[in-house]
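Morning run. Coffee first, then this:
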Amino acid sequence: MRTIIKNAKIYIHKDYFVEALSIENGIIKQIGKLDELEKSNSDEVIDLKGKTILPGLNDSHLHLASVGEFIRSCDLTSAASIEDVIKIGKAFILEHAPHILVGRGWNQDFFSPNDNRMIDKNDLDRISMEIPIIFSRVCGHVSVGNSKALEIIGLADAHLVDGGEILIGNDGKPNGIFTENAVYTLYSIIPEKSSEELESDLEKGMNYAISVGITSVQSCDIMGSNSRMVFNTIDRMYREGKLKLRYGHQFNYQNINDFKNYLMTEHLTGIYDERFLSKGALKLFKDGSLGARTALMTRPYADDPSTSGVAALSDQQLFELCDLAAANGIQVITHAIGDAAIESVINAYENTFSGETNPLRHGIVHCQITTAKQIERISKSRIPVMAQPIFIDYDMNIVESRVGFDLASTSYAFKTLLDSGAPLNLGTDAPVENCNPFPNIYSAVTRKPIKNPTNKCFLEKEKLTVEEAIDAYTIGSAYNEFKENFKGRLLPGYVADLIVLDRDIFLIDSMEIKDIKVDMTMIDGKIVYTCK
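And here it is:
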């Protein structure tokens, strides 16, 4: 099938646009002026009446199944107090009568000043003591269970967890707060999804993603023990033509024995075309989040000297996993937010290079709290950075109080990283943030609050241009998965993944970028979404 798109403003690269392109069998064949395109035997002509077209956007790190799960779970993001959390939980029980109540999205920093503490089991007990309740913080690195949940786990006393904490209350008993690897102890009481339930969540996530312009995802849905069922479900969906966007795995194995099992199974037997379904990378967690004070810092937190964060992996464990991955030709990407975590990850990666600069493109997810020296090392070693500029919307309010002025001034340094040679790509870590890319691009370009934007701007020198942000979301994210030779650009020979915007992102006031909507999404030359 041959399709011509005409009368459009098609972004090719900075300061270069064309008005038309032709597509044949899912591949872009020609670009340029309409009268320059071969028009013979065209099956379809799409007149876009001057609208702007971008390459399809590629979220370099999210959790697609969790996006779908979040849509059907108890949404706590609107809670402005502990009382709000309780009211939302009670209302959800009345409406849905669940056997177990699972929710996500609370953030103690958004609670009123006399109420800005972590919620605990006593708060959740006010919702119900009859059913287990698990409410995760917005970052996903802290979760809280009620007394019924702790009873089911059999947790009555202090309990040590490798790479995590189960916090203790004033009575010397667990207070229901679990951090980092310890959250899996709490999650163990949640019934495992069936393949059908996982498919439903993935479908919900895909439908939403393509509606906001995402045509490729690099998704961490493999989390340890659930791996076989998830691999099988996604493989089946691929074979049945149910994957609506391009999907690359980011498989999380914190335990080296789990990773070894992967190497003996899926790594050897999995079937991937590396265009629509990709084998992907080993995803590791080195630390937690800044908001939860579990990001691993070199020095204690300025606003809580009792902690320097949590190491989800020891340095030795990280080195062993990275070495094993490199020995098998597998890329590693590691969640690292605090400066101590980032230092450890750089060391582990450089240990695998064997004379060549980062041949497997090992990358850092988030890479938020950095020193100037670390930025130099990341750039020199060509370590890809999977950044989430939208995190600035919240973190700009806490970063200086958490880590101090000096370290805050060299953090979230996306422009400096890009200009100094580090491969930069963008994602949202959804459902931590909404996977809608336009608030994310807005944050990269303005570094201002999304709600009630003022003149406040966090480190103005680190703003990206609109073109830099788009390139990071397209060709940058494609580079991250070794696919820059066939996607991420609207050039001849590249796949016809593109989106049509409701306004011109290059001409509107930057404050409008967050409000952009997608009129049409095309993947592989096929229209998969149109705005109703």
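The chain has 18 helices and 24 strands. Good start to the day.
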